[in-house]
Each structure stands twice: as structure tokens, then as C-alpha cells.
Amino acid sequence: MELIEARRKIRQLIDENSPDDAPTAYYALFHAPERSVLFTRQDNQGRLLGFVGRFQTGVDLFRPLITLKCSSPEGAAELMEKALIPGRPYILFSSLNQLAMVGGSMQMENQRILRIYAVEPSRFKPEMNVLVVHKNTASGLPRCEIQDATGKPAAVAGVNWKSPAFAEIYVHTEPQARQKGHGRTVVSALTQRLLAEGVRPVYLVEGNNIPSVQLVESLGYVDTGSRQVYAETIYKGHRKFSV
179 and 84 in one domain? Predict the structure, then answer.
């Protein structure tokens, strides 16, 4: 099945307008076609039962990113057997509820469970700061900075990926610039910019990262209740499942 047709069918399984599905939807539907491969499984009537996607990203040039949405471990195992090479490392990035679908097919390392926060526009109150510098990356993604006296970024908020409905943001503040509110300022500026474009920002963070949680919550971001797993993995090969 060609990528365009696979993406059309995958829309049966994921809601590209829901923050819960936003990370999966970005890779499955909008990641660069030349760096995306999708494997799908259908029933006898042509209805989609699940998919596994393999993507080349800038996150890790040597480990493709894998996401999936399957209704059964058997279906996931069948698709992974087509999509993955035994003994090769991958990055698993999917909704937490898909972890049970993977079963014993992957050896997990450095597993992180991320909360999906999304801004509530009615709660967001932008903060004006003349120190914020607005930029675009080489790929056209928005970026907001506060620079130090030498012109180097002291605090940065940017975008990891962007779909028509959502954008995953990140923030980094240099150690010497912390406790000055710069991180909050650049996140506020980036949030305002994305909302003005009609895109809703989301932020993925581990629950024990209290400073980051407090930062985004203070700007009107709310925990959607959905969880995303990020793990370094080795694909071990097809595993049979008993019912």
C-alpha cells in the first residue's frame, strides 16, 4: 500500500484533532514522506485493524523512530515483523496503551513515560517582553529566544514537530540564566505565536520534572491525562502470543 493511501486509511484509527493522539498523528500522517514508511493490517472487508510506522528523524540518525496503533498483540507482532529488523535498535514513541501490544518483541531500555500537556487557550494570558527574539529554524519551525550580553541564547523555546492542528514545544534555559523567569517568557511568546497560527501547543514531560510542569501549568497548559512512552529498544523478532 502506498504511503498516501496508507495515511488515508490510518485516519480511521487516530484523531488528528485530539491532543491525546497528536504525537502519533504527526508521525503517521504528516512526517516527511521520504522519511516515512507505514505498514498496515486490514480485515477481509478492508477495514484497518492497525498500523506500525517507521520514521527517520533528527532525534537519532542511527535509530529509526517507531510508532504504532494496533488492537491486538498478534496484529502488532505481525506488523513489526514486516517493519523491523531483528537485532536492530529503534526508538519506540507511542501512546502508553500500545506498550502492551509490543509484548516481548522489544527489549526496552531507558524507558520514559511522558505526560501530554496541552494549552487551554481560555487560560492562556500572554506576557509581553521586549527581550524576546523571534526566529525560524532552517526547516521553518518557530523559535523564541532571550539572548545574553554576548548575543548567545540564554533561554530558548522551540518546536520539535508541527502538524496542522498541534505543535510539540520544548524549552531550554542555560544554567546561568535560570531563576529569572526567562524560560516562562520564551514559552509564553512561542505559545502566543503558535495560537495566532491556529496551532495548539502541546508539551511532553515526565511527571517528576516539577519545574517544567509548574512552568507550563502557570501558562494555562493542562494535563490531558494521556501518556506517551519513549524508549530505546532492540527488536528481538516475532513473538507468538497465547490467548
Answer: no
